[in-house]
Amino acid sequence: MSLGSLLNVSKLGIFASQGALQTISHNISNANTTGYTRQTVELESMRGTQADYGGNGVRIADVRRQIDELVDRRLQLGTGELGRLETRDKYTKLIEDVFNDMDGNGLSQGLEGFFDAADTLADNPGNAVARYQLIAKAESVAQDFNKMSEALSESALPLDKEISVVLDDINTRLKAIQEINNTIVRTEASSPALDLKDQRNKMLLELGQIIDIRTIPMENGEVQVMSSRGQELLADATYSAKFGRLTNVKTDTGFSAIGIGGREIGQDKIKGGKLGGLLELRDEVVHGDTGVLSKLESLADELRWQFNRANTVSVGNSMVSDMTGLMYLGSDLDTALSGVVTDNKAATYQGAPVDLSRVTSGRLVFATGTESALTPSAAVDITTTMTLRQVQQAIDALDGVQAEITSDNKLKISAENAGSKLGVVMDESGILAALGVGALISGKGAQDMAVSAELLSNPDLVGQGRLIVKASDAQGLPTAVVHDDANSQGALLMGNLRSTKFMLFGNSASLTGHYATMVGELGSLINQDTESLTAQQAAQTFLSNSRESLSGVSLEEELTDLIRFQRAFQASSKMVSVADDLMQTLIQMV
């Protein structure tokens, strides 16, 4: 080896050691930088020629990020599930507060209070205080439904608004990933973009916690960001998707759909991350066929129907001369009852009474006259093929009874003769309960449930008793009835609803039983989410620790390498000094 070659080899050794020391210094300075990946230097020996017996020294072949791609990919995939579960955990606990009966003022206690009041009235039908108490308890139950519906609706509205905020955040992050992708591609053409890749990896992890994504690394250094099922390109070096709300396209639960560039993207493609969690909460936990708000509405519908069926066939302490329905008839007055659309979920609801679909074919009989001398009317055979107008006309055709549709679109039934009183003997069809004639509860759902204003102002009208049938004909129709203000059959009807079972949500149970089941299912869902979140957090912690053990900076290891390469640098410098001494010796010999 010539002295020139010796000097060159020593110089390359100095450069290689200097580059290694610079990388080590970079690692040490970033030991506390979040998302930083340890960089390592790969040295490569340089092959010598025939004249260079010992080779041509060393060079830096590459500087790499020390990573395990499998661990990084699993960590990235897990962030989407973690974000989804954290979002569900946060909001389901807020929903749970709506059903919290621990303070003794919840719906369950309200229902029990109403049934207790009905039992008290049945025991003493002449007690005016008991009638006031029944109305007060009914109003309390209605207000509980109002508050719960309002709370759940308000929890859904912020959820939908939060979805819009999240979409804007996703758009900003995707644009930033596109820009850093583009910078990495340009930088990689001349030198490794190691720190930029660390920044991008951090950005991808943060995005993955918001929306479930998949990433595909490309040879030029860019990363393609895809939707969770790989069906939508979200970002690369030249493109970034833009999410938005499609005001002209609605989801099954009535909210504006999500789109990319004006094109709808199905919610089945968004399964993880904060966005996926928000969509699940909005469309499954709160709304949807099995959502708590939908179940609350179904419970309210059942309660309103059962309470009204009991009260419409009952009479108060004093009989009345007329009864006006609580429900608006809608515009389908000439459509068969079985064909009338009653969509109580529509915000601009203008249809017929929501309980009209429960009406069946059956007989309807009134009694008119003085309270001491009542005469049963002929029976009206109500069928589901009749229209609302035909129902009104059929009732109006009865002797002693008058029926009309009021100017504000309600059914009013009156005693035809001056001074006469009116009462219901039987209603097998349920038409009076559907139209709210003599009913206890008004409204189309939980959000507007209310006690009849007439009963609130005059509790004596509460249906505490039934008209007593003294005689019937061969067809079972009453031929003689009397009014006894000591009769408590009406109050007993309402009190018996405590234990009567109804089919809801695929199960048969009492009203309080259905409510308890609904609350229990919500609690079970929350516990399941909490357990899943704990398990996912443990899994992410394990993966993070695994990544840190490989890709994190260990100061002890860096200091060891620092000493090693420092000594190598010193040795190469010594070789330069030796070569210089040899050169001086040769010059002196000449």
UniProtKB/TrEMBL annotation:
Residue span(s) of domain Flagellar basal body rod protein N-terminal: 17-37
Chain ranges of the Flagellar hook-associated protein FlgK helical domain: 95-312
TM stretches of this protein: none
Coiled coil regions in record: none
Flagellar basal-body/hook protein C-terminal domain: residues covered: 551-589
Keywords: Bacterial flagellum, Cell projection, Cilium, Flagellum, Secreted
Subcellular location(s) of the protein: Bacterial flagellum; Secreted
Keyword Ribosomal protein part of the UniProt annotation: no
Pfam families reported in the protein's UniProt record: Flg_bb_rod, Flg_bbr_C, FlgK_D1
Secreted found in the keyword field: yes
UniProt cross-references to InterPro entries, sorted A to Z: Flag_bb_rod_N (IPR001444), Flg_bb/hook_C_dom (IPR010930), FlgK (IPR002371), FlgK_helical (IPR053927)
Family from the record: Belongs to the flagella basal body rod proteins family.
Protein's UniProt name: Flagellar hook-associated protein 1
